[in-house]
Amino acid sequence: MNKEFYKLKTEIIKALANPTRLMIIDCLRNGEKTVSEIVEITGEEQSNVSKSLGILKSNGLIKDRKIGLNVFYSLKCGCLDDFFNCFDNVISENLKYQQELLDSYKGVK
Amino acid sequence: MNKEFYKLKTEIIKALANPTRLMIIDCLRNGEKTVSEIVEITGEEQSNVSKSLGILKSNGLIKDRKIGLNVFYSLKCGCLDDFFNCFDNVISENLKYQQELLDSYKGVK
DNA sequence: TTACTATATTGCAATTTTATCATATAGTAA
DNA sequence: TTACTATATGATAAAATTGCAATATAGTAA
Hints:
- By secondary structure, chain A is an alpha+beta fold.
- The first copy, chain A, contains five helices and three strands; from the N terminus they run ααβααββα.
- The first copy, chain A, has helices spanning about 5-15, 20-30, 35-40, 45-60, 80-109, and strands at about 35, 60-65, 70-75.
- Chain A has a three-stranded antiparallel sheet.
- The relative contact order of chain A is 0.12.
- At the A-B interface, helix 1, helix 2 and helix 5 of A face helix 1, helix 2 and helix 5 of B.
- Chain A binds a DNA duplex through helix 4.
């Protein structure tokens, strides 16, 4: 197996592996937004948001266009929808499992 | 936005944001494997592989069954295929963009 | 029991990531 | 020019993650 290829892929996944950056991706799913709109929606610090946008952009996940003082960001990759759905599935499966554990524990008592 | 939910999601994504763990996921895509098979295929240290499997399992991405001394691991979530395809897309788009940059630089010279 | 094999766990130093605060830049307007 | 606004960048300390080496566990076989 070529580890270098997996390292490359890991870089992109790491760009998503952060709550602030995930929130940004999610709020861009319903359209282009300026930095200050994202700051308001997410409730994160401006410098955090700006840095996060930089990371997402340099990994090819979002793009930007500047108009006057404003910078508008938007998703670059439609497949991020599948991505989100995938992890929603995993989370709900995990919860289901934990619920089953809890139920079987109750059954034993 | 509910940051706690995004933290939860981030945990799962982090589980994938590592080259060793990505290799493991990828090699499980064509069927169940024992730990030592995975060690051989990936070329990683046994303790690393074991730890990685633990992380993937506790995040609900893989499952295991024990037979004698062997533990067989397999994927738990079919949507990981989409996931992989998504990032392959992003990588090839990024490369395409870099190639264009390079070409336009050549054009200027 | 002992010896062996497959897998898991622990300890740890090095590296990476994080969030915050302060500051810098670029565009607009007067 | 000065003042203002939107966004980006730098420094830094705390926290999290990494991979390796050593050790532990559990199952098998003699």
